[in-house]
Design goal:
Length: 246
Amino acid sequence: MGITRMLVLFWALWAGGLQAGSVRYQVEGRTFEGYHLAGASQQSTLVLLVHDWDGLTGYEMKRADMLAALGYRVFAADLFGVGVRPTAVEDKKRLTGALYQDRVSMRALLAGALAEATRLGGKPEKVVALGYCFGGAAVLELARSGADLKGVVSVHGGLETPAGQDYNQAKGHLLIQHGSADEAVPLTQFATLVGELERAGVKHEATSYSGAPHAFSVFGSDNYRADADAKSWRRFTEFLGEVTRG
């Protein structure tokens, strides 16, 4: 996002009762840049949003804006670093591949983003992690790490559990939203994950959307499916209220 758009958005949201802006933070000596929004009501529920393989872009900011408009506090994390927003497929594969190969580092970056999110506001005991595509795989990694979360939501994310890992330490409820026509993440992985969650005794809900390909919620893309996106968003917002009630 350019600085002009950021400033315009900041003042527009401020005038509407929201506080918004980019936030730089440190994890293991590296600098990252997230995006934070807080509603005027100072809603205590916090959504930690994790980006797709192209980094924190306008898509995640739009989703954060939508959540803030509903009264939630949102922190969109950055797992790549300040200014690292790849556009070439080979760069996207390289950056995500490095984290897939180093799960310790991935968990450290996720934990650092969560710490920064709670530092900015919201009750740490009322956090829901949301991720799209690569971010969906990342929030499942966060769940397996045993992070104290009320809910974890993976939208058309990677679903395969790495060798040697399981969900025995996962907390809160999991919501898995998957496209039935997803060729990148086959339905066999979807079914396997459901079995893993059941065996681990993790409360979960898993939905597949008919005819929806990978990345079905990405506005303006060839894979966007308005019907599946609307259904998944509606269920997600209901889920947020359910798991953070009280």
